[in-house]
Amino acid sequence: MKILLVCAGGISTSLLMKKMKKYWEEQSIELEIDAVGISDYSEVYSNYDIILVGPQIGYRLEEIKETTNIPCAVIESFDYAVANCPNIMELVNKLYEKK
After folding, report:
1. How many domains does the chain contain in total?
2. Among the four residues 4, 14, 33, 41, which has the most C-beta atoms within 10 Å?
């Protein structure tokens, strides 16, 4: 499974991405995850199965869904802020089921 994290500039999602990679490695789950800013997602989205959006750009979710036609969701603010990887993994699994 390949996941794309999208936020305003790609910096905060890069931090989250590192924590998520570590969590998934500890759980022996093989996933690929990358992070980009909102201005760059349209150039790379076709390489991914799921898109997770940072809460700061949650208002752009519908636009991203329409542009990509890939399962997308906004990460809950608290889960994003504290890098709650188990909750984020639940979200990923729900989205992947829709694929």
Report:
1. 1
2. 4
